[in-house]
C-alpha cells in the first residue's frame, strides 16, 4: 500500500465501512450466498481494515454493527434490505476474491469500492439462453423419468414457455409468488394437453418434470447450510420462503389439472 493510500485508509470511519459492508452483504444475499459465506467475506475485509464486525443476516435484510479497533468511540449499527433476489454465482466468487485481495494485498478502500462496482455491473446470461437451458434441463429430467423423446419435447416446450411467462410477469413487477404460480399453471397446461392427447409413451413423466425449473434449489441448499452452521433464524426464513414457492407451484399445477379435467395423475 502506498503512503497516500495509507493516509486515506486511516481516515476510514465505521460508518463508511458499515455502509460498504451492507452494500456488499445485501448484494451477496440477493445473489444466492448463504450466511456463512456472507459473514466470512465481510469480516475478512473488516479484519484487514481494523474493524470489529458483528452481522445478523436474514432473508429479508442485513443488520451490521461495526466498531473501529483504533477508536472504540467510532462505532455504528445499520440495517439494509436486499435488492430483488436473482441468483448469480459468479458474483459470489468475485466478491470472495475481492475480500482476499483486501486481506492479503492490503487493497485500499477506494480501490475495493471500484472493484465492487465493477462486480455489480456483471451481467446475467441472456434470457433466450436461460430459456433454452431451462427447456433442455427439464427435457433431460423427463428422459430420466422414463419418458420418451416425444414426452421430452413436451416437457421442453412447457418449461421454455413457462419460464418466458415467469420472466415477463416479473418484469411487470408483480409479486414473485404470482409469477411462479402463473408459470406452473402454464407449464402444466402444456404438459396436460400432451397427456390428454396421448403424446408419447409416458405423458405423466412430462407433467412431473415440466415444472421442475421452478424448484427453489438455492434457498433449499442454503437453508441446510445455514442450519448446519448454526444460523437458525436465517435457515428458518429460507425454508419458509422455499416452502411457499413449492405451495405456489402446487397451486398452479392443481388449477391447470382441474381445468383440463384430468382425474388421476400417476408417474409410472
Notable characteristics:
268 residues, mainly alpha, 10% strand, three-stranded antiparallel β-sheet, 11 helices, 2 domains
Note down, in words, how this protein is organized.
Helices cover 67% and strands 10% of the residues. By secondary structure, the chain is mainly alpha-helical. It folds into 2 domains: 3-120, no CATH class; 127-260, no CATH class. The protein has a 3-stranded antiparallel sheet. A hairpin with a 2-residue loop joins strand 2 (61-68) and strand 3. Helix 4 (89-105) packs antiparallel against helix 5.
Layout of SSEs?
Layout: H1 3-10, H2 14-31, H3 35-48, E1 51-58, E2 61-68, E3 71-80, H4 89-105, H5 109-120, H6 127-144, H7 149-171, H8 176-196, H9 203-209, H10 217-229, H11 232-260
Antiparallel strand pairs: 1-2, 2-3
Mean pLDDT: 92
- Which overall shape is indicated by the principal axes computed on the Cα atoms? elongated
Number of discrete helical segments = 11
Number of strands: 3
Order of helices and strands: HHHEEEHHHHHHHH
Q: Helices and strands: which structural class?
A: mainly alpha
Task: State the distance separating the first and last CA atoms.
Answer: 65 Å
Q: List the strand order in the largest sheet.
A: 1-2-3
- Helix share bin: 55-70%
Estimate the strand proportion.
Answer: 5-15%
- Largest sheet data: 3 strands, antiparallel
Oligomer class: single chain
> What Rg do the Cα atoms give?
23 Å
Low-confidence stretches: 1-8
Question: What's the structural domain tally?
Answer: 2
Amino acid at each position: 500500500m502506498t503512503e497516500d493510500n495509507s493516509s486515506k485508509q486511516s481516515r476510514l470511519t465505521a460508518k463508511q465501512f458499515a455502509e460498504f459492508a451492507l452494500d456488499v452483504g445485501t448484494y451477496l444475499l440477493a445473489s444466492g450466498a448463504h450466511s456463512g459465506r456472507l459473514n466470512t467475506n465481510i469480516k475478512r475485509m473488516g479484519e484487514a481494515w481494523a474493524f470489529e464486525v458483528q452481522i445478523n443476516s436474514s432473508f429479508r435484510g442485513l443488520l451490521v454493527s461495526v466498531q473501529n479497533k483504533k477508536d472504540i468511540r467510532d462505532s455504528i449499527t445499520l440495517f439494509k434490505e436486499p435488492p430483488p433476489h436473482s441468483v448469480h454465482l459468479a458474483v459470489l466468487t468475485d466478491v470472495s476474491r475481492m475480500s482476499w485481495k483486501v486481506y492479503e494485498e492490503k487493497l485500499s478502500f477506494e480501490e475495493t469500492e471500484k472493484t465492487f462496482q465493477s462486480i455489480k455491473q456483471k451481467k446475467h446470461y441472456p434470457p433466450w439462453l436461460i430459456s433454452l437451458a431451462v427447456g433442455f434441463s427439464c427435457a433431460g429430467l423427463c428422459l430420466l423419468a422414463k419418458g420418451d423423446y416425444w414426452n421430452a419435447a413436451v416437457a421442453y416446450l412447457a418449461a421454455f414457455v413457462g419460464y418466458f411467462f415467469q420472466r415477463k410477469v416479473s418484469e411487470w413487477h408483480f409479486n414473485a409468488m404470482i409469477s411462479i404460480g402463473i408459470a406452473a399453471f402454464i407449464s402444466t397446461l402444456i404438459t396436460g394437453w400432451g397427456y390428454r392427447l396421448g403424446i408419447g409413451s409416458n405423458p405423466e413423466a412430462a407433467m412431473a418434470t415440466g415444472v421442475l425449473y421452478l424448484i427453489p434449489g438455492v434457498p433449499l441448499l442454503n437453508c441446510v447450510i445455514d442450519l448446519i452452521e448454526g444460523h437458525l433464524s436465517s435457515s428458518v426464513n429460507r425454508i419458509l420462503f422455499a416452502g411457499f414457492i413449492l405451495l405456489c407451484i402446487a397451486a398452479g399445477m392443481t388449477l391447470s389439472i382441474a381445468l383440463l379435467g384430468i382425474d388421476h395423475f400417476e408417474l409410472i
